[in-house]
Amino acid sequence: MSQDTLKLILEKIFTPNKGILAADESTKSINAHFARLGIPQTTEYHQKYRDMLLETPELNKYISGVILYDETFYQKNSAGVPFVASLKEKNIVVGIKVDEGLFKEENGEESTLGIKNLKERLKKYKDHGAEFTKWRSVYKITSETPTKDHIKNTTQLFARYAKEVIASGMVPICEPEILIQGKHSQEETAQVFAAIMLYLIQAFKEHEVSLSSCILKTGFIVPADNAPLSYEATAEEVGEKTHDIFSSCIPHLIGGVVFLSGGLTTQQATSYLRAYCLLDNKETNYPETFSFGRGLQREAIQAWGGEDKNIALARQFLLKNCRHNSLALDRIESHAFVTPFQE
Ligand code: 13P
User: Which of 292, 231, 234, 229 has the alpha carbon at shortest distance from 263?
Assistant: First the structure.
């Protein structure tokens, strides 16, 4: 596969001041959000919801790429145009989640499924217009986990996945997500991140994966959501710690880095991104942006609530959050946050 093709895709994704909208929740995940809000958990409502998000006017002012789930990838918007064609028309690069979810091991750690039939699925997605892909693994921090075996197995899978995706002519996003749930400190998150990176780099070497064609998707280096108060960190501390760890663990050759929002509130995700981007002495020289799911969608889905009459309001919330994160990339303060919904 020509490196130039992949370079062009990377350039489009990392268009200055734009980021990725992760709208690739599996059926199970989107149904869980719908259930909480009393929205019918049907294919029809999945389509309506994705139509509300993806057909937001001016989305492409702040969004360069969207990650879709298989179901949405083959659906059409309310005007009867396939979502993929409609996004391309707006100059938004189409990505697709290609892992097939998680499987619980005996010790409680979760492995990622989907490597077996990956090659065939990649061909289908590429032929249908996808230009990049995503594969997610999760790491839970407890006194026993993540185990060395888990880190080793998941990073081997990342390398095999990335190699196949590059060969297919698309850009792979590798997303090792350190779960925020727990009681761990920021330092423990940093240590686990460093261990994952060590094994990931080793796996990439073994499988001869070109780092410069890959995107790393990661969270900010934060303490757990239920960590003792003494572990709390300000946005500035999160920005600094994230940068310290990135500059010592992420190879400068990587094609780019994008942030997930994990279990952060909408405001936390944006303020951490801003604090990180505001650092004066940044030593990272690869492109960086946001790739938020909940961080962009949370307010919009609550405003929508499954009702057509709320579409315009929901789109305002989506666009507002896209704009705030775009401003954060540009190191510009957005005006006071308006957060009418419970996080
Ligand atoms: P969150 O920003 O909600 O973590 O979603 C990003 C993502 O791609 C999860 O896999």
Answer: 292
Domains and CATH numbers, the chain: 3-329 (3.20.20.70)
Peptide bond into 287 cis (omega under 30): no
Q: What is the pLDDT of residues 74-83, one digit of tens each?
A: 999 999 999 9
**Tally of helices (H runs) and strands (E runs) in the chain:** 12, 10
pTM for this prediction: 0.96
In the prediction, which pLDDT does 283 show?
Answer: 80
User: Which pair of tokens denotes residue 296?
Assistant: 């962009």
Distance 260 CA to ligand 1 centre (A): 5
217 is catalytic: yes
Nearest CA among 10, 4, 3, 42 for reference residue 286: 10
The single residue of 217, 288, 299, 320 carrying the catalytic annotation is: 217
Catalytic, 175? Answer yes
Ligand 1 atom nearest residue 22's Cα: 8
From 265, 291, 296, 318, mutation site for ligand 1 pocket: most ligand atoms within 8 A of C-beta: 291
The mean pLDDT of the chain is 96
Q: In this predicted model, what pLDDT tens digit does every residue of 137-161 receive, in sequence order?
A: 999 999 999 999 999 999 999 999 9
